[in-house]
Amino acid sequence: MFLTASTVCRANTKLAYVQIELSNESADFRHHVVNALHDGGSEVTLITPETFKKIPNHEQIPINPERGSYIVSVNGSQSPVIGTALINLKFTAENGSTISFPHKVYLHQNIEHDFILGRDFSGSSAKLLETPTHMYLTQEPDHSDIEDFWDRAKRNNFAIPLMPLGEAQRTFKVFNTTTTLVPAFGRALIHARYQTETFIPIPAHKNQPIAFEVISLLQPNLETPSAIYEYRNPNDICFTIFNDTNNDHIIPTDVPIAHISLFDNPVVNTLSVTTGNPTVFQVNRTAIHTAEFINEDDNLTEEEKLQGFYQYVNTGHYPIPMSTVIENAQS
User: How far is CA 38 from CA 118, 168, 254, 261, in A?
Assistant: First the structure.
């Protein structure tokens, strides 16, 4: 018998959801995406028969009968398990990298969620740690020595975003529609569209602006500023990204680019900008450690070194005394 807290009553809105791509064990390119309830109250991972049938090539996945296995809800009622199946769970980290696990799921009819990720996964060695916003996963195999395992896993982990209920119901994956070059240390404008296969209805726009925010990018080495955008055409969702590396980054067409979250009625405050007498601050890019040559000049007194240091910081340059130039020059 397995205990779950989410079979009869609806889940608490404070519970978190995680997006997972489900596929058969061969982990082919086709998959079905679910927003899984990350339920610490369920001992095992549960899936409804309807969701299981949406997995591509689900006919090839054997279902093993589980005679004598029951799910016990919080009110004590018992309902039988249909069977178990081994499927592939693929998670996408916040930086766009992915990690996959074969995992046994229990098919059960009497649950109000498409998929419940249970403690048989979240309590396994696959999860390194968890915060209110992320679940950190790893594939480091040997965890017999906990200190050695932690030292290896902390350098090779995947930060999987966790979404609260309201955000999960308004979060969508979008795909890049044009091949985009993001130059090194540069920015680019992304043109994206909604994912075609999604169980969450795409909001009707009726040529009205819809506000959204980019929650996470699904391509590595890219970042996006915190901002609220608007779109009118669901096939042309635009937002800005930038490349903070010294290599150009090419994003092909029809690849997942980001998760976006929609706003029903965003609150916008007017920012008033007035013209007056602006104060101009001059900033000199001066690294403190490069001023060592002033301290090493034996021809200067301590007071002269201090004055030279202030001059170097304020102006960005320091004139070397002529006596030093003559002494250092070749005969």
Answer: 7, 12, 29, 19
